[in-house]
Amino acid sequence: MPIQNSKLVKQVRTLLRPGAPEDALRNLLEELQPYDLSILLSELDENHQTLLLKTLPPETAAETLEHFEPVEQYLFLDHLEEETTISILNNMSSDAVVQLFTAIHPRQVERLSAMLQPPFREQIKNQMAYPENSAGSLATMDYIAARRWWTTEQTLEHLRKVGEKAEIYNYIYVLGPRGELAGVLSLRELILAAPGTQIDQIMNSKVITVAAELDQEEAARLLAQYDLVALPVVNAGGKMAGVLTVDDVLDVIEEEATEDIHLLGGSQPLDSPYLQAGIFGVFRKRIVWLMLLFLAGTITSNILKHYEDTLTQIVALAFFIPLLIDTGGNAGAQTSTTVIRAVAVGDITVKDFFKVIWREMRLGLILGLAMAIIGLAWALAQQKNLDLGLTVSTAIIAVITVSSTIGAVMPIIGKRLGLDPAVFSAPVITTVVDALGLIIYFQIARFMLRM
Fold first, then answer.
1. pLDDT tens, 141-182?
2. Least confident stretch, 63-72, 268-277, 300-309
3. Who is most buried in 164, 277, 399, 405, counting CB within 10 A?
4. Which residue has the higher pLDDT, 318 or 82?
């Protein structure tokens, strides 16, 4: 029953008033999914939000809060009575608690950490020891584990005891005597196995795992490549550090894609939804890149000043400057966007450096020849000067070829240096291409027009 209009919001507000029948509210809320409840929660005022969270079962309230940003989660928990906060916090998934604790002030972390049950607190402490945005910090501890010497009956009995609290129960992870991951067993295989069978006889010992220290984006890509529902995360000693689930991967993909889109536009990623971000916060995210690109753009002005004598001799050369630098910038931006995406999904690695250069040089040459024909026709229509037209068309070929090559090279170099390829965004590459395009244009003009 998704939230589609304000009618339901008004109905909930009415049922949250003093004296309203509690059963009617509970029955209404039972029909809603946690995501729908999160939308409903956003539509209510602070007092009604508190009442709603107190009404919901702790596990439902916990799952509902996980649809909010960490800072928003803290504000909700902070406004609740301590008893309610404790019950909700201890029902949140371990990876959600880790993300919450890494986003708030250490003193706030200390307060909330004291509310956790000791075993859960120890889990969170262990996960927070991993680097931020790593597979270990993202993994959940809410999985089902069994010992390899257990029988199918023992494992099923264990599943009945702990399965309700597990985030994923499709797989049972089989551990050795020291807690090392020995294999994995599907729920289907467990149910169909003959009674009394020892699970290490039916488990799959060839398990695809991911290192706890691996970057979350790489881990998410690995899970997607193997089309898995969950991926076990192991530490350096081979022990289970948690499980990376498909819903975590979707969050990572959205987060990384959002970051790349912002960087491609020449801006730092926002820390909160667009409409909730303050004006000055957005200003700080944009002004640094804008100033850097402005300073880089002054190089273009200096190049024009350097070739002032050339422009003085043939003023008509200036008419085609916007055409050339825009075409070169667009070609470079097209290539860089394609290559950045290919690097992000693993289609291109640093080893493919020369293959990509050779490919883009040829592609740039073909594109340049096609655009040169149009450029020659345009120049002749504007100035009726064949020498000038040939100069412009030749410059177009050279500029597009160089721009395509630069657009391909810079993201791969960034990857090799350990930088996010999206940092070499379209605005950055366009600025570089503009400067080189002017130099190429004027040098060709000097040679072909014998200046």
1. 778 888 889 999 998 888 888 777 777 778 889 988 888 888
2. 268-277
3. 399
4. 82
Cross-strand partners of 72? none
What is the separation of C-alpha 42 from the centre of its chain, rounded to a whole number of angstroms? 24
Length of the chain: 451
pLDDT, residue 87, reads 93
CATH topology of domain 138-245: CBS-domain (3.10.580)
Q: Which amino acid is at 80?
A: L
pLDDT-based confidence at residue 1 (cuts at 50, 70, 90)? very low
CA angle in degrees (0–180, nearest 5) for 341-347-349: 95
Closest CA to 441 of 310, 332, 305, 295: 310
Q: What is the DSSP letter of 349?
A: -
Return the CATH architecture of domain 274-448: Orthogonal Bundle (1.10)
Q: Which CATH number fits domain 6-129: 1.25.60.10, 2.60.40.1120, 3.30.360.10, 3.30.450.20?
A: 1.25.60.10
**Across the strands, what pairs with 50?**
none
| The pair of three-digit structure tokens given for residue 446, joined into one six-digit string | 């000097």
